[in-house]
Specification:
Chain B: One of its GO terms (molecular function) is cytochrome bo3 ubiquinol oxidase activity. Chain A is mainly alpha-helical. Chain A is built from 19 helices and two strands. Chain A is globular. Chain B has two domains: 62 residues; 35 residues. Chain B has four helices and no strands. Classes of the chains: A mainly alpha, B mainly alpha.
């Protein structure tokens, strides 16, 4: 197998040795803590084997927070390195690895799990279902994602990180120019995580189409459910492209094929083409659910129905279709010729139309509304101006001729951070503050939340606004240093200071989670925001079967109207029936472990070991095929006991605004 | 099939069958009895094949019937859209302009 033991652990760089020590200490602390508090059984029964969509969602969100931390550290390291000209904090190779992992982690392992986590927690509740369509597949989705994420994350201490950018363009990413194992991590870890994402897409399409409660037609679905449905469809359409592209990359790197190489008839630009055929829809995969979150939050805290519901739906579908038709704008400078560039310029600018419709709809929702300035609402308000800056600079970049100037500069980097941070990160924070009481039964502290918002928002603008101007002055992206004569130094320093404020904001968020977990009041009602949709019609935290009796929907904003009419809020004891629930399963966790091991061997090109480990995958599939567990039934008495704990006998939902 | 075939004569099946025969013989005629160039023959046969596949979907495979009729149509249209975008789009982008030379 030719195992090179001496090359496995990265040694020599003090930063990395420090991380290695930190990782070992953390693992010891976790294992020790679990053993000391005798929590192994609890961890296995309640979390590792769970198929409950709410717990899976919480695990996704936890992974998102962790990965945000990791990706954020990468960002801070880059900002430290470029704070002054000619810094020697990181060398060129280390810098390459850091901007690569920063990009991959922030998009695929931070934004995606945050959003999929919120989708998991909220969507089945919003449509009045008891779980997703395929609960065990859902657990498998999470564990494959987690397996891929962990495999990717160990790269910087074991074997070396990928260093060809998050886009991993050939020929640089090929074996010829990047012989190390770093880019194998990219090809294989993303493949494993991508499998999980694809399954999530399928699961949510079926869930939303087939499991809506009685009376909920498509046009009565809450907006977040709509965006989740369309996102899932884009996932199913676009992710297979990435799967194929990564498989071809794996063949090129591991088995010497020539799909993307310069020699022997390969086409390096085919990689860029396939990557962005997936990559651009991917942008909408992360931003559409975020739009859904804003729609829910803005409607709730403006105390009005969402303005222009139908036009919202049409514009999401429009964005979904157009998202497949713009990919070439990521490589206008490839030289595809004026016809190609003109067509893709036009499609790119067309996307601004449905997006603009949505922005105006949010503004009109707020018009004449009685706006409550909760933390969730602050994030939504902050989103609009910042995202518009991102959108307008996007249209500037979309003009193919002008793009020759902006291409590969920090202007572009500033643009996509202005789109992705307000569009995704602000949405995730809004969603977390909004749905936190539903997930955990207590609220995040609103005052700390406001500090979090202002620090993060100011830090974000101070970090990325200077990069527009640096880019216009010609500062290129992905360069690890610059000369003092370039005149870039002051703006780079401002940007670095901004990144510290940004990090402080995130620190306040983490502290807020800790503080609220320990000290927040536990007596919040099931509907603390006086909200509009069905997830608020049940207990907080939600009981494992979601609804004692499935609610019936008559119109949009169903729960709001139920409260207005005072109907359907009281549980009638004679309506309670036994509930059929799926059993827990250790199989998804097992699959994550064998996929991780197989992937690890493949990364190091130990083919025989990988083949042996892959047998474990097949065994898992066989075990699943002979699994005849049909779940279990919750008795009426047990339901009555659980329901009586949060409902008063007289019933009704307590109103409580924090 | 049941709710239509039972009540009346299966007229749509017969039309479908005759049209399929017609399209097949047209393809045979173009291939064997004309002197068009090879490329043109391939284009004509290919178009006839796609036409016939579409015809059969509606006449024999009942894509529009059943509770998922609409969804089936949307699925197929979307799949066709995706396939065309990915394949034709990639070929167009990679073979136009100086990038290809």
């Amino acid at each position: 197998m030719g195992i090179k033991w001496n090359e496995i652990l990265i040694t020599g760089d003090p930063l990395i040795v420090g991380s290695q020590i930190a990782i070992v200490m953390t693992v010891i602390a976790i294992v020790g803590g679990l053993t000391y508090f005798k929590k192994w059984g609890w961890l296995w029964r309640e979390w590792l084997t769970t198929v409950d969509h709410k717990k899976i969602g919480i695990m996704y969100i936890l992974s998102g927070v962790l990965m945000f931390f990791r990706g954020g550290i990468d960002g801070l390291l880059m900002k430290a390195q470029t704070a002054r000209p000619e810094m020697n904090f990181l060398d060129a190779q280390h810098y390459n690895e850091i901007f690569t992992t920063h990009g991959v982690i922030m998009i695929l392992f931070m934004a995606m799990p945050f959003l999929i986590g919120l989708m998991n927690v909220v969507v089945p509740l919003q449509i009045g279902a008891r779980d997703v369509a395929f609960p065990q597949l859902n657990a498998l989705s999470f564990w494959l994602f987690f397996s891929g994420a962990m495999l990717f994350n160990i790269s910087f201490v074991v074997g070396g990180s990928p260093d060809a950018g998050w886009t991993s363009y050939f020929p640089l990413a090929g074996k010829e120019f990047s012989p190390g194992v770093g880019n194998n991590y990219y090809a294989i870890a993303l493949q494993i995580a991508g499998l999980g994402t694809l399954m999530t897409g399928i699961n949510f399409i079926v869930t939303i189409l087939k499991m809506r409660t009685k009376g909920m037609t498509l046009m009565k679905m809450p907006m977040f459910t709509w965006t989740t449905l369309i996102t899932s469809i884009i996932i199913v359409a676009a992710f297979p492209i990435f799967t194929v592209a990564l498989a071809l990359m794996t063949f090129d790197r591991l088995y010497g094929t020539h799909f993307f190489t310069l020699s022997s008839g390969g086409s390096d630009m085919l990689w860029a083409n396939l990557f962005w055929l997936w990559g651009h829809p991917e942008v909408y995969i992360v931003v559409l659910p975020a739009f859904g979150i804003f729609s829910e939050v803005i409607a709730t805290f403006s105390r009005k129905s969402l303005y222009g519901y139908k036009s919202m739906v049409i514009s999401i579908v429009g964005i979904a279709l157009l998202s497949m038709l713009v990919w070439v704008h990521h490589f206008f400078t490839m030289g595809a010729g004026p016809a190609v560039n003109s067509v893709f310029s036009i499609t790119t600018m067309l996307i601004a139309v449905p997006t603009g419709v949505k922005i105006f709809n949010w503004l009109f929702t707020m018009r004449k509304g009685r706006i409550k300035f909760t933390t969730a609402m602050l994030w939504s308000l902050g989103f609009i101006p910042n995202f518009v800056i991102g959108g307008v600079t996007g249209v500037m970049l979309g003009m193919a001729a002008a793009d020759y100037q902006y291409h590969n500069t920090l202007f572009l980097v500033a643009h996509f951070h202005y789109v992705l941070i307000p569009g995704v990160v602000f949405a995730v924070f809004a969603g977390l503050y909004y749905w936190w009481p539903k997930m955990f039964g207590f609220m995040l502290n609103e005052k700390l939340g406001k500090y979090h918002f202002w620090l993060f928002n100011i830090g974000f603008n101070v970090t990325f606004m200077p990069m527009f101007f640096l880019g216009l002055q010609g500062a290129v992206r992905r360069a690890y240093t610059y000369s003092a004569e370039s005149g870039f130094a002051p703006l780079f320093l401002v940007s670095a200071i901004g990144s510290i404020i940004l990090a402080l904001g995130f620190a306040v968020f983490c502290y807020n989670i800790y503080w609220s977990f320990r000290y927040a009041k536990r007596n919040v009602s099931s509907d603390p925001w006086d909200a509009r949709t069905l997830e608020w019609a049940t207990a907080s935290p939600v009981q494992f079967y979601n609804f004692a009796v499935l609610p019936e929907v008559k119109e949009l904003d169903a729960f709001w109207h139920m409260k207005k009419r005072n109907s359907g809020l009281v549980l009638k004891e004679e309506e309670i029936e036994e509930i059929h629930m799926p059993s827990n399963s250790g199989l998804p966790f097992y699959m994550a472990v064998v996929f991780g091991i197989t992937g690890f061997f493949l990364v190091f090109e130990w083919h025989i070991a990988a083949a042996v480990a892959a047998i474990g995958i097949v065994i898992g599939l066989i075990i699943r095929s002979f699994d005849y567990d049909d779940g279990y039934h919750v008795t009426v008495q047990e339901i009555k006991n659980i329901e009586s704990k949060w409902r008063k006998v007289e019933g009704g939902v307590k109103h409580h605004v924090g | 099939m049941e709710h239509k075939a039972n009540s009346k004569y299966p007229i749509s099946h017969i039309i479908g069958f005759l049209l399929s025969l017609l399209l097949t013989f047209a393809a045979v005629f173009v291939a064997l009895k004309t002197r068009l160039s090879f490329t043109i023959v391939m284009w004509i046969i290919g178009s006839l094949a796609v036409l016939q596949a579409g015809l059969q979907l509606f006449m024999f495979m009942h894509v529009t019937e059943g509770e998922d009729g609409k969804a089936n149509i949307i699925n197929m249209a979307y799949a066709a859209f995706m396939a065309i975008v990915i394949v034709v789009g990639s070929i167009w982008v990679l073979t136009s302009g100086h990038a290809a030379h």
